[in-house]
Design brief:
This protein is α/β, with parallel strands linked by helices and 257 residues long. The chain has a single domain, classed as TIM Barrel. The chain contains ten helices and eight strands. It has an eight-stranded parallel sheet with strand order 1-2-3-4-5-6-7-8. Strand 1, helix 1 and strand 2 form a beta-alpha-beta unit. The structure holds adenosine-2'-5'-diphosphate. The site of adenosine-2'-5'-diphosphate (A2P) has 18 residues, from helix 9.
């Protein structure tokens, strides 16, 4: 439900420390990607943590500039120093939503990953994929926060049995200083980050905030002893700028097209 994302975390000491702290503080979901260039550090931190591998849920993502998801999964496993992934996602639908799926299924059939899924797929792309998939996509990881409340996309996922997972739940930090978020946080006696994370959880999503600071990693995980009331939830809902879209990103946000 709540994991550490390591997008934009530098390979080496910074990444190793963040993952080590997260595991020490109780996180059991770690989210990386081939494109992040930090899988080796994630793997080292996991191995040195003393937490059994089977207690950890490890996600990485196929970089769709590559050709063969199965071959690339093997390379990820070598960098991560583990013999399986829990979840392997197509990072974005570059070149269309279906071409990479057979290779994702091959990775699954070879036992390289327990689950396969997608990221940055809109509802129409998900529907295209469902027409050709033999293995059910488990997860769609999407840009999601009160400001990026893609309600129709989350509903399309739920209808198809796909779990939505929120990346950049803090707007990569931009939403933390928003006056409405600050007001709701101070009324609840929590931090803006905790309010944004809690909102995503109450919307039923799995959520992966990123931080490289120990005290923030700790505070971001401390969200299971309070609930946002209906008024706060609807005030946060009203911050949406996506018109509750079923698209994963606005056209101008699609960095690969
Ligand atoms: P840092 O890594 O220096 O702690 P998102 O998860 O939406 O991508 O947001 C990540 C950004 O938000 C990072 O810049 C991170 O900075 C910052 N951040 C994460 N947690 C907190 C927090 N609890 N308080 C303030 N900033 C935070």
């Amino acid at each position: 439900m709540l994991g550490l994302g390591v997008w934009q975390v530098r390979d080496g000491r910074e990444c190793e420390r963040a993952v080590a702290w997260a595991l020490e503080l109780g996180y059991r979901l770690i989210d990386t990607a081939q494109a992040y260039g930090n899988e080796s550090s994630v793997g080292r931190a996991i191995r040195n943590s003393g937490v059994p591998r089977e207690d950890i849920f490890l996600t990485t993502k196929f970089y769709p500039g590559g050709k063969d998801p199965r071959v690339e999964a093997e390379k990820s496993l070598a960098r991560l120093g583990t013999d399986y992934l829990d979840l392997y996602l197509i990072h974005w639908p570059q070149g269309g939503p279906t071409w990479a799926w057979a290779g994702m299924e091959a990775a699954s059939e070879a036992g390289l990953t327990k689950g396969v899924g997608i990221s940055n797929f809109g509802a129409a792309e998900l529907q295209e994929l469902l027409k050709v998939s033999q293995i059910q996509p488990a997860v769609n990881q999407i840009l999601f926060s009160p400001f990026d409340y893609r309600r129709a996309l989350v509903e399309a996922g739920a209808d198809a049995g796909v779990v939505s997972q929120a990346y950049s739940p803090l707007g990569t930090g931009r939403h933390l200083g928003d006056p409405a978020v600050e007001r709701i946080a101070s009324a609840a006696g929590r931090t803006p980050a905790q309010v944004l994370i809690r909102w995503a959880i109450q919307k039923g999503l799995s959520v992966i905030p990123k931080s490289t600071h120990r005290e923030r990693i700790e505070a971001n995980f401390d969200v299971f002893d309070f609930e946002l009331d209906e008024q706060s939830i609807s005030a946060l809902d009203s911050l949406d700028t996506t018109h509750q879209t079923a698209d994963a990103l606005a056209q101008r946000q699609k960095w690969w097209s």
